[in-house]
Specification:
globular, alpha/beta, single chain, carbohydrate metabolism, metal ion binding, 15% strand, six-stranded parallel beta sheet, D-glycero-beta-D-manno-heptose 1,7-bisphosphate 7-phosphatase activity, binds magnesium ion, binds zinc ion, 32% helix, hydrolase, D,D-heptose 1,7-bisphosphate phosphatase, 6 strands, Rossmann fold
Length: 189
């Protein structure tokens, strides 16, 4: 099974210092949803792993998070794509959970749900903790220069990133790179 694991805020949609608390505040990045659909059409399944400490901080509730994800699924679906599953950490930074990235708990949940060995599965995000969490279970780290990483454009990669991190301008560039590297199998005649 071909699987990629994506961060949400700053990777698929615009990051917000005030947290994305409602469907209205969830705004996709240019080309990101099309990129997910292109990955799907090339045979890739897409899972999302996202820290949502706004839940633990009481900034929004699970019903709002579900509504945000319903909007995301609908928008991807309108482009002929599909996000298979969204895994989120609801905890605050002081709760000592195992699922808040950079801890690998969300990735372990994804591996179990899909029955996939995560070694060599690409992980895409805009912060070191996204990639550190994935690398802990053997994923291959890909940074997109959107969201929190937009300011890194033209600069050397800080040492907080895994040393084998591959850098792409955005999710669309990542998708192009992955699809060119691993062509889809030929369609049966
Ligand atoms: Mg992010
Ligand atoms: Zn957690």
């Amino acid at each position: 099974m071909k699987l990629v694991i994506l961060d949400r805020d700053g990777t698929i949609n615009h990051e917000s210092d005030e947290f994305v608390k409602s469907p209205e505040e969830w705004i996709p990045l240019p080309g990101a949803l099309e990129a997910i659909a292109r990955l799907n059409h090339a045979g890739w399944h897409v899972a999302v792993a996202t820290n949502q400490s706004g839940l633990g901080r009481g900034l929004f509730d699970v019903a709002s998070l579900n509504a945000i994800h319903a909007k995301m699924h609908k928008a991807v679906s309108a482009l002929g794509g599909r996000i298979d599953a969204v895994f989120y950490c609801p905890h605050g930074p002081d709760e000592g959970c195992q699922c808040r990235k950079p801890n690998p708990g969300l990735f372990e949940q994804i591996g179990e749900r899909f029955g996939v060995d995560l070694r060599t599965v690409p992980v895409v995000g805009d912060t070191p903790r996204d990639l550190v969490a994935g690398v802990a279970v053997g994923c291959l780290p890909h940074l997109v220069l959107t969201g929190r990483a937009a300011s890194l454009k033209g600069h050397p990669l800080p040492e907080t990133f895994p040393s084998h991190t591959r850098v792409h301008n955005d999710l669309a560039a990542f998708a192009d790179w992955l699809i060119a590297k691993v062509p889809a199998p030929p369609r049966p005649a």
